[in-house]
Design a protein that fits this description.
This protein has one domain (33-128): Nucleic acid-binding proteins (OB fold (Dihydrolipoamide Acetyltransferase, E2P), Beta Barrel), CATH 2.40.50.140. Helices cover 33% and strands 37% of the residues. The chain has 3 helices and 6 strands, in the order H-E-H-H-E-E-E-E-E. The chain has helices spanning 2-25, 42-51, 53-60, and strands at residues 38-41, 64-74, 78-81, 85-89, 101-112, 117-128. It comes from Flavobacterium salmonis. Pfam families: tRNA_anti-like. This is tRNA_anti-like. InterPro entries: Protein_unknown_function_OB (IPR024422).
Length: 129
C-alpha cells in the first residue's frame, strides 16, 4: 500500500514538472517563418477594430499578419505605424526611419481601446520602401 502511494505521488510530481516545462519552454512560435494570414494596411485594420472590437479580435487575435503603414515613431525595439499600430520587433533595423512607408509581419496580441492602439509582437520587416 505504501509503495502504491509513493509511486502515485512520484507520477503526479513528474506530470507536474512536465506540464510546467511544456508551458514555460515548449510550444514556442516562430512568426517570422509563418505565412501572413492577412495582408492589411494600418488604416483599414484600425477602422475594423473601431467598428467592432469583438469581431476584429476573433478575426485577427493571435494570427500572423502583414501590415503596411507609415512609421510615426521608433524606440528601442518598437515601431509605431500611423500612431496606432505598436509593433514590438525582435531586433530594431537601423534602416527604419520616421515618415517611411514600411511593411511588417507580426502576431496580433490585442487592441488597447483606451489608447486606441493595436499591439503586435514578434514583428519582422518584410518590405522597407
Amino acid at each position: 500500500m505504501k509503495k502504491k502511494l509513493i509511486l502515485t505521488i512520484l507520477a503526479i510530481v513528474a506530470l507536474g514538472i512536465f506540464g510546467y516545462c511544456y508551458v514555460w519552454y515548449g510550444g514556442a512560435r516562430n512568426v517570422s517563418a509563418e505565412d501572413a494570414v492577412f495582408n492589411v494596411n494600418s488604416k483599414s485594420i484600425i477602422a475594423e477594430f473601431d467598428a467592432d472590437i469583438d469581431k476584429s479580435n476573433a478575426k485577427y487575435l493571435e494570427k500572423a499578419i502583414a501590415i503596411k503603414g507609415i512609421v510615426s515613431k521608433t524606440d528601442q525595439k518598437q515601431v509605431t505605424l500611423d500612431n496606432t499600430i505598436v509593433c514590438d520587433l525582435k531586433e530594431l533595423d537601423p534602416a527604419i526611419k520616421e515618415n517611411q512607408e514600411i511593411t511588417l509581419k507580426g502576431r496580433v496580441v490585442g487592441y488597447d481601446d483606451l489608447m486606441g492602439e493595436i499591439k503586435l509582437d514578434e514583428c519582422t520587416v518584410i518590405n522597407n520602401d
